[in-house]
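Sharing a chain and its predicted structure for anyone who wants a worked example. Both blocks are below, sequence first, tokens second.
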Amino acid sequence: MKSNNFVITIVGPTAIGKTALSIELAKHFNSDIISCDSRQFYKEMTIGTAVPEANELAAAQHHFIQNRSIFEEYNVGAFEKDALTKLDKLFIKNPIQVMVGGSGLYIDAVLKGLDYFPEIDPQIRANLNTILKNKGIENLQNQLKELDIETYNSIKIDNPQRLIRALEVCIGSGIAYSTFKNKPKSPRKFHSIKIGLKADREIVYNRINIRVDLMIKNGLIEEAKSLYNHKHLNALQTVGYRELFSYFDENFTKEFAISEIKKNTRRFAKRQETWFKKDQNIVWFDYQTGTNSIISEISKKIKGINR
């Protein structure tokens, strides 16, 4: 049985205006904001992850923004637990809370729950990373094919992170990774209202290009340079940093690196759109829709559920 608590979640592609809307909603409902942007967790990464400006952070209480270090291990399972714990505390103050972000997996983790896997000895992952480095990805692919053919056939086997994750569970538990998937999830103790912002693809892409240019102007190259010695860390395997590391390695020119950031961010936005379009529960608004119209729709939904 759900309580009368509500999580209003703002989704949509990068650079569409989610942050601004979430702040307006937080002000209206007197709520805090849970950030579901997995790139903004890290305090060493500010410009390249489009962390909200100081005045935006001051306009509403934000959680899970720059609360971790790139040197810490942090994943979607840990975030799910942390976010649910935080929401339980916030609901004591206010039954309506706002969540925002473009990381679909992290949003689903909070709203629906994840498949749960056993704790695995971290040395197993370290060993698999050594194999990847010394023997290449094909060795790991062959291992997974032998240990869990179902997962081998269902994941992107050219993605080393996903490959290693599946393998470490197989090796550490002695049970196929696939057997842990799609188990019943624990029910949430709140109602979910999802609001999506959208625009024509050309508009989204233009906004992305403008944002990247602004990031460069604001010092993204210098920020990436300060992180270059740690480029192997998982947190830094992301758009905006990866391309500049290639520039520092003299594989790219500066101009080509910037064009690659724009291109890869546009690809990321396309993947976000694909992810969110699958969700029939999202109510979509044009990105220029007035906040009052969106608040009116949310209020109607809350009243309808509370009847």
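Comments welcome. Residues 39 and 145 are 31 Å apart (CA to CA).
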